[in-house]
Design goal:
9 helices, disordered C terminus, two-stranded antiparallel sheet, alpha+beta, elongated
């Protein structure tokens, strides 16, 4: 079916579908918002920042070269931090019991005294050394692997900056914070062994952020509104294209090439068609009655 719709027809379609566009738009927005809120689990993000910086030399040229080298090596660090060498250790630390020091070790305290037998001063222990005390804490989590961490962890940097950020997205804000801090701690220890240089330090630890970063409910609701409006408009266009009724007399004369014999005016609605037919039959059997007494609307008898 090849039909062309001009701008005036589109405007008419828009006017006729305006109420439907409002209703379907509101329904689409509500369905998208509450559907996303009920079906999509919210995700929270925590991040920790690390600084790449080595001990600076007094020479300004050496300092500049060292800074440029640190900036360039960040790309290597970004690749290492998402590798199993770091993530497996972090996952093992998060899922294994940890030994936590509760009391620091104390050194022995020595005093001096004069030995009358030997005639010399000698040291003696006034307070014995005390070893550090530890306690075993249960594992924080039990269902994390290196592959799970690889899906959660990402690294971002700013141009010409010696600071890079470890970002973690998870459905639990506390777990996202713990993973970010653990990955940063493990990386800080591992990189000294891997690169034979200790130039990474944590500048800010991750904290629990209870504001979800996804799903973006406002954006999803806006998309639902637009989809509802488009559906209503398309429905109006389909009705217009598939409508075969003649709305303009010019279509009869110009497109079909027929002759216009006249126009039949609108006839008012009859309340009871069956009763009107019965009355017409009775009047037909009695031709003496006046035709104008029937209940049918009469056609004008004017002749042209």
């Amino acid at each position: 079916m090849d039909r062309q719709i001009d701008f005036s027809q589109l405007w008419n379609v828009f006017k006729r579908s305006f109420i439907a566009m409002i209703i379907l738009g509101i329904l689409g927005m509500a369905a998208a918002y509450f559907g996303a809120k009920a079906l999509i689990a919210p995700k929270y993000e925590s991040d920790t920042s690390l600084l790449v910086n080595r001990k600076q030399d007094n020479d300004p040229n050496m300092q500049l070269n060292a800074q440029q080298a640190d900036i360039q090596i960040i790309n290597t660090y970004k690749d290492i931090i998402t590798r199993p060498v770091v993530l497996e250790t972090a996952a093992n630390d998060l899922t294994s019991p940890q030994r936590v020091m509760t009391k620091k070790a104390k050194k022995a305290v020595y005093g001096t005294r004069y030995n009358a037998t030997t005639g010399v001063r000698e040291e003696y222990v006034t307070e014995k050394a005390q070893p550090a005390q530890y306690k075993l804490t249960p594992a924080k989590y039990s269902n994390l692997s290196a592959d799970d961490l690889a899906k959660m962890v990402s690294v971002s940097t700013q141009q010409n900056s010696q600071v890079f950020t470890v970002n973690v997205k998870d459905t639990n804000a506390i777990r996202a914070r713990d993973i970010a801090n653990e990955v940063a701690k493990v990386f800080e220890k591992k990189i000294a062994t891997i690169m034979s240089i200790s130039n990474v330090s944590v500048v800010s630890k991750a904290t629990a952020n209870w504001t979800p970063v996804s799903p973006r409910l406002n954006m999803i609701a806006l998309i639902g509104l637009v989809v509802g409006v488009i559906i209503a408009l398309m429905w109006g266009l389909v009705r217009e294209i598939t409508d075969q009724t003649i709305k303009n007399i010019d279509f009869i004369t110009d497109d079909l090439g027929l002759v216009n014999l006249g126009i039949v005016s609108y006839v008012q609605h009859m309340n009871d068609m069956d009763q009107a037919i019965e009355d017409a039959k009775v009047k037909k059997q009695d031709p003496s009655d006046d035709l104008e007494s029937t209940d049918f609307p009469q056609r004008s008898r004017r002749r042209i």
